Amino acid sequence: MRHVNLESRPELEGIEVELFLLGLLRRYGYDLRGHDPELVQRHVRRRVREEELASVSALTERLLRDPGLVERFLAQFNDPAGGLFGPAVYWRALRRKVVPFLRTYPSVRLWQIGGRPEEVFSLAILIREDLPRPVQIYATDVHEALLAPARSGALDARKVAVGAREYRRSGGSRNLGSYFERREGSSVLSDELRRNILFAAFNPVTDGPFQHCHAILARGLFGPFREELRAKAFRLLHDSLIPLGFLALGPGDVMRESPVREQYKEISRAAGIFQKVGP
Known about the structure:
- The protein has 10 helices and 10 strands.
- The chain is α/β, with parallel strands linked by helices.
- The strands form 2 sheets. It has a 7-stranded mixed beta sheet, with helices on both faces. Strands 3-5-4 form a 3-stranded antiparallel beta sheet.
- It is globular.
């Protein structure tokens, strides 16, 4: 593998990254130009290294001819941290402060933004235990390929064993492993739970409002965005949420940067959960 000192040509690299992002948009429809430029640059550099290329320009050339490169690049933006029911404070707050309110509806629509198996499966299990209502879970990500691991239902069996502790801390009282079947070294989420999950490619920056949801779980969504994209995404989530619905953002203060912050009340500061109280 050739070693390239990208740091030695920052001005040229900046132009190359701009052309790479333009190619990503024009060829595949993904617009990352409003993301944090330092974050994007780090991911582009990583892709150059892992593709064993000499420059960002070479990466752009390959991008235009290799759709698989798009999948590999976008996958880098998925936060790999966090296992089943982690952190427990987040899932415990959903159980105690959100689910009781959802029980007042005859049927419920939930939108999980980000298709990581750990989050999708945790949500499906929590709903199965605490919400005896017809529930439709929509799990979305910006590219179909990013949904493939969760769509398969499979998870490394060790992750289920490790997740058992956080599951109990979140308020779970059953055997976490009972929701999975062992198949060839993997744990596969039961068919009963998977039937409630609908997977779809969706970009909350470029697409229009989603279903009118009772709760939207959007942990980690806003981290890569600059101010303009954050405002746009907040408005889309707001328009996709029913009155008195819940928006779960995870720990942090991103709501105070929202153009619709006056329309929400804080339900749990530790978990970053808010309820829509305005129009």
